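User: I'm new to structure prediction. If I give you an amino acid sequence, what do you actually give back? Let's try with this one:
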Amino acid sequence: MKKRNLAVVVLGTAVFGMFANTMPASAAAAEAPAFVQYEGEWPAPGNEVANIIYDTDIADDVDDAGALAMLHSYAEEGRANILATLCNSTCIYGASCLEAINIYYGRPDIPVGTYKGDAVLTPDSYYYCKPVTMKYETTLRDGADARDAVEVYREVLSAQPDNSVTIVSVGFLSNLTALLNSEPDEYSDLDGVELMRQKVKLVCCMGGNFQDFDTAEFNFMCDPASAQLVADKCPAPIVYTGGEIGSKLGTGSRRYEMELDNPVRISYDVYLTDETGEGTRPSWDLTAVMYAVEGLGDYWTLERGNVTVFDDGKDAFEKNEETGARAFLVEKMDPADVTARLDEVMLAAKKNNPNGKDVSFMDNCNCRISYAGGDRNWGNWNGNDMNFANAPGATMEFTFTGTSLDLYGGKGPDQGKFTVEIDGQQVAEVDTYDAVEEITCCIYSLRDLEPGEHTFKLTILEDKNPESSDTFVRIDGVKLVK
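Assistant: Good question. You get back a string of structure tokens that encode the predicted 3D arrangement of the chain. For your 482 residues, that looks like this:
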């Protein structure tokens, strides 16, 4: 099931008065939390350039990509500085997709990080992140190459002026939880709470349901413990853009006005056409970015108070206009007019990569790739669009023109070893065994080849890791750079 499809029940705006000071029945038995309070001047986005750290669960839904395009558009206007882009899910291609979009829009130096914790947060939601990673210029082969998001958070925050950073969190609150729990390190003598207190002026969080307190929103529901901790512990003011806000705003229909090679356009094409057949997608994450940069404008009003998140991901709100450190957006403008503005900003971001590398991708079924059998022929793996074999001596071979390649395939407890030959010379022996299965990831890379034509050959070995139960090798495709 797609992101948030079951999580949000949209009611009319008239219900706000009914729920503004109400907690669900489950709250009655809960001990009242010690709410964080805020007595300073409430942040007012839109009055100055926004210094943004974008923390996203890119992969689960396509609005994450659209929101990043908006940030690049605002950066072009001089209304935002993108300090870092972070992935808060365990999708193996999330961080590399972020980097590909940053490079396309001309900002290759934006730091990229990813969640490195123990929780399993939608690891198989590849959708568009995998093709964007494989078909666009990146330095990250996949998320395994990315830095820990907490390290990036601490390094970036420590270098910023006090009270200057806006964190836009559109997804799970896993990274923010890890940041709040972090200890002093080489970047700062402050722990996570104090570092945020000193550097962060606002957290804009796409999460929660502030129209129907009996229904949990997706981001809170998938990782309620993190949503709870951030609501209870974050020292900076938080403005929530609840699921009810973005669900009425369907963007994506104007993506055909983007450049043909735009990775955000392709992301929408893959997600909507291949997965849903829809022409648009709700704009949950886009509204969070829009508020963080433009502020309330004529789009929304604000309800300020205290927020409680429960173990099942449901939330509650208690109005407190004087010292409440949490708030949520309330619809004001006609949704059609807000949608038009979102599309306008997203489409304004333009390609800016004049010195980009020439990247191409060969799918596993590309006719230029030759597979030969051993005891059995290569086949299609478990219904997935991947070729596999486990016969010692089975080969995969192709000729290409370029200076580097990344080979994508699978790792797991039944995976084997293979040798790599380039132009007839063996250059590597690769073991794809892993105790935890990774359906697809980068399994081998080769860099700094001499320009020109080369022949690649892979041969499955009889020898295997002692821990492996078989000698399977799975192939997803090959990324080539001239």
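You can read the tokens as a compact description of the fold. Here is one thing that stands out. The longest helix spans residues 63-77.
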